[in-house]
Design a protein that fits this description.
five-stranded mixed sheet, 5 strands, 61% helix
Length: 427
């Protein structure tokens, strides 16, 4: 039951319970205001107390009343008792605001008053509902003592003193049990509401975290894709800049590749911006790359002038899990991007081997940058280094670690730079 539902159904709940709900929702504890249910219950209690006071006031005024024939009730006490009965009935309307005060007044007048019997029961019941047993218990013992005094003033010939004492104890015990049951039920409702609110908050937190994780994953994917696209674009642009003597066909082909790469980069950028919005528009996510897309990735780099060799020795390529194939593709993509950035003109070797149970081994290696001759491919020339964010390998390490694999990179004994990874492939 959230704060909204508590407001919708507030007229059905006790004002104290509604105050607790709104206090937790708003951070403040406002004074409880009567709900429709409170008005109904208080009206019934008022009519019961008033009816009891009127009936007993009429009864004690009869000539044959036991209160008169007993001879222990002073004549002046009868009109006073009638006024107390009426005043106590009116005090019922303030029982929620001052339960202890009303119970204390009812305790004092219960020692001699006849017309306030219903008020005394309602006051003690209200106290049991709104206060803990440390306060209600002593009040119950005091009401028992007051009952003994009352039956001394107004003896009951049928019950006798012992019977009157037993009746008082049993009746007050029943009222106490009823009030504590109502209090426990309200506390249970509050506890269940609190649990429901916590569960709802935790669910919302899990949803938010899942969205954030998914956005981070997609942003990492887009980082890899954009770095690949822009490095290709920079490579072709550098070739046009430093090869003014290139043939028109070469210039046209390089310009076409630049235009296509720029369009693809803009599409990728548009996609990542849409995904990272607070309220995504629900556009379907593009198909993720797999191991079968590696040849196209290598061919794209070859068209840009990168000398790449690809060796794949996979036992059953069609059975490679989608996550493993996607991870392999991203590792090779990042390795080719880094080779174009930091070792332009160097030969790059890509190998993918493995099988079910053994895992998938990925290796991307290249030598240091080479100064190409004037007749080299379209990516030749003293192309300036492509700037990078320096987070590509960090992202790959995180991706590989989350997949349960391992990633290593660095210089080999021969001076080559090598990026190796192992991804688990369950049998």
């Amino acid at each position: 039951m959230s704060g909204r539902s508590a407001s919708e159904y507030a007229w059905l709940l006790p004002s104290a319970l509604v105050a607790e709900v709104r206090a937790e929702a708003g951070g403040a504890r406002p004074r409880p205001r009567r709900t429709t249910r409170d008005w109904l219950v208080d009206s019934i209690f008022f009519l019961v107390a008033l009816g009891y006071a009127i009936f007993t006031a009429w009864d004690i005024r009869r000539p044959d009343s036991q209160f008169v024939t007993g001879g222990m009730t002073p004549a002046w006490l009868i009109p006073v008792d009638t006024v107390l009965g009426l005043a106590g009935s009116l005090a019922i309307w303030w029982r929620r605001r001052w339960p202890v005060g009303l119970a204390l007044v009812a305790l004092i007048i219960s020692m001699f008053s006849v017309t306030t019997g219903a008020v005394q029961v309602i006051a003690y019941f209200t106290l049991a509902v709104h206060r803990r047993f440390a306060i209600v218990g002593p009040f119950g013992a005091a009401f028992v003592v007051a009952g003994v005094i009352y039956f001394e003033i107004h003896p009951d010939e049928e019950l006798g003193r012992l019977g009157s004492l037993i009746f008082t104890v049993v009746f007050l015990g029943a009222v106490l049990a009823w009030g504590m049951f109502v209090r426990a039920r309200r506390q249970l409702v509050l506890s269940l509401r609190d649990r429901a609110d916590r569960a709802e908050a935790e669910q919302q937190l899990r949803i938010t975290q899942a969205r954030q994780v998914e956005r981070t994953r997609i942003a990492r994917e887009m980082h890899d894709v954009l770095a690949h696209r822009i490095s290709l674009l920079s490579l072709h642009a550098g070739a046009l800049e430093f090869r003014p003597d290139a043939s028109p066909d070469e210039i046209t082909r390089a310009a076409g590749v630049i235009r296509a790469s720029a369009h693809q980069a803009l599409d990728d950028l548009r996609e990542v911006i849409g995904v990272l919005r607070e309220e995504p528009d629900g556009a379907p996510e593009r198909p993720q790359p797999t191991l079968a897309d590696l040849p196209a990735l290598v061919a794209e780099s070859r068209e840009a002038g990168v000398r790449v060799s690809l060796r794949t020795e996979v036992a059953d390529p069609a059975a490679v899990p989608a996550a493993v194939g996607r991870g392999t593709y991203r590792i090779v993509q990042e390795g080719l991007t880094n080779a174009r950035k930091h070792a332009p003109g160097a030969r790059v070797a890509v190998s993918v081997t493995g099988g079910p149970g053994d895992g998938l081994n990925v290796a991307v290696s290249n030598r240091g940058p080479i100064s190409p001759g004037p007749d080299s491919g379209p990516g030749s020339g003293p192309v300036p280094p492509i700037p990078g964010a320096g987070t590509g390998l960090i992202g790959l390490a995180e991706r590989t670690s989350l997949a349960g694999g391992r990633l290593r990179h660095g210089r080999t004994a021969d001076g080559d730079f090598q990026l190796t990874a192992w991804l688990p492939w369950p049998s």
